[in-house]
Amino acid sequence: MKTHLSGSVSRTIMLAGAIAVAGLVLPASAMGQHRPIRGEFLLYADVAVPVGEFSDHVNLGGGGGIGGVLYLNAQRTAALRAEGNFVIYGSDSYRAPLSPTVPFVDVDVRTTNSILSAGLGPQVYLGSGSLRPYFFGTVGFSYFVTETGVSGTNHDEEFASTTNFDDFNLALAGGGGLSVEVRGGENPVSMDLSASYQHNGLTEYLTGGNENLRRLPRGGWSASPILSDANLMTYRAGVSIALR
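and the corresponding structure tokens:
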């Protein structure tokens, strides 16, 4: 089954990324008055593993993220980290007539469960060579959203979508990783492997595509969200490009 992000989910991803970038650009602008900006741009894919109560209702999720680090000292051992992430933890799709009055035109109906998040916080490296372990912590937000969109059967462009349910929470994350330089030069490129725990706390959310959505006998629909802790372990693999 192909996963698809609806328009408003895509806009939220871009907002999360913009917040993450702004978290670095603003302090970097102030520091740039005294010395050149030094840092790294991050791009990664991730696998999300629900933990605790969340694992009773949700299986593995997948997604990715963007972010960066701004070095705070010449040794590149202290930095400010900002990131924006998305995870899709469930989707469901089916084909149906456009409407009872237009029964001979089919459309694809797709419901997607997603988590959008962004955070800002410190990152500490344990070395300054080509092999650099690090630890980090961030504070930010998580946005759980379930959306249903409709598109034609011959292309993926949605022409209508609805947010079925959403919840917005404070998110705290902490983790560690390993940066391994794979190409030197003016802008070195490194492979970045990391893992983090994200605490979203008590959250209301929908699962499994249409499992918590119900059609009403006289038309319309209703949502029956689950209420539980919704914490995650995420495992990431990506690349970083140094800016010197």
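(Above: one complete record from the training split.) Confidence is low (pLDDT under 50) at residues 1-10, 25-34.
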